[in-house]
Amino acid sequence: MAAANSLTFCPQVESPAGAAVREGLSSRPRSLPAWLFYDDAGSRLFERITELPEYYLTRTERAILAAHAGTIIAKAAGNAHLRIAELGAGSASKTCLLLAAAMERQGAVHYEPIDVSASALREARQRIEAEIAGVTVAPRTMDYTNGLVFKALRPGERRLVLYIGSSMGNFEPDEALSLLQRVRATLRPGDAILLGVDLIKDREVLLEAYDDAAGVTAAFNRNLLLRLNRELGADFNPLAFAHRALWNRSHSRVEMHLESRRVQRVHFSGLDLTVDFAAGETIHTENSYKYAPGQTEMMLARAGFDPTATWTDEKNWFAVCLGHAR
Ligand code: AVJ
Question: How far apart are CA 323 and CA 302, in angstroms?
Fold first, then answer.
């Protein structure tokens, strides 16, 4: 009967996680989007990753920002008053260096961190309000890839959008470019963007950063499965999946996968979905793109920015690029 059919086939109002899982685990090779890592537990695990000896990214970028924060802020501002927004802010531990430099220059700063993790933003706000007096923190919990709108600026103000921490590295190069173009569309000529990107380097250095001795990255990768158990009623045994990190040289990216150690069936009671895994079958959970020197500047230019300046470390492991909207 029509009524029964329409009930049966009426599309469930599915959570974003549910929709992503249905799509990613039904396709071959199986994959899950990297944003799923960042529930509360995942955000905490990522914070621990940033403190690992093998994970050079955070401390290298922090050193670059510590050495050049004053210059970066001065160049970004010109003779305007900066308002600072940050995409994928997380706990914003490196941002303090830039906010402090902006405080010193202009006496007050409006800071708008944007992230999918509400808990990370809460932590960011506490940290910043405790560390730097005079910064107004206005967090926004949202997925910035779904569209972005900023409040109009007052005369004499300029916006600086921070997109640091190699966050852009999770996107395919064409997606990254389109994201930069969409950010550019929210800005006015003279506004600025600061990009922090990880550079191509020795394979061993890259792989250790994504497969640390203490197993924190493995736990971060497997937390994805625990999240699906918690939120979607799945029955994953996380230890039945091995953490794998590999360097895909031709695509210039580190990949993370979860590899099924044996034949197994996983049921999602919240999704009415069953997935069968063969032994050795993988779920591709993350791409982390690494850039060649000059590549970020080229992307900025293609997205409508003038690449104004680039700062790097002495090993050339990480780059921080400033661009001004044309
Ligand atoms: C938060 C995307 C910058 O790609 O290095 C860390 C995430 N994954 N270890 C990165 C991550 C595994 C991280 N980003």
Answer: 11
Report the chain's C-alpha Rg in angstroms.
Answer: 21
User: Which pTM does this prediction carry?
Assistant: 0.93
Does residue 29 have a cis bond before it (omega within 30 degrees)? Answer: yes
Distance 213 CA to ligand 1 centre (A): 16
Q: Which helix (H) or strand (E) holds 136?
A: strand 135-137
Q: Which amino acid is at 234?
A: A
Q: Which residues of the chain carry a pLDDT beneath 70?
A: 1-12
Cβ–ligand 1 distance for 49 under 6 Å, the answer yes
CA distance 95 to 132: 11
For residue 32, which phi and psi values (nearest 5 degrees)? -135, 145
Judged by phi (left if over 0) then psi (alpha if -120 to 50, else beta), residue 142 lies in beta
Helix (H) or strand (E) holding 82: strand 81-87
165 lines ligand 1 (CB under 6 A): yes
Q: Please tell me the number of Cα atoms within 13 Å of 38 on its side-chain side.
A: 21
- Token pair 């970066």 is found at 72
Pure H helices in 78-117: 95-106
In the three-class reduction of DSSP (H, G, I as helix; E, B as strand; rest coil), residue 269 is classed as: coil
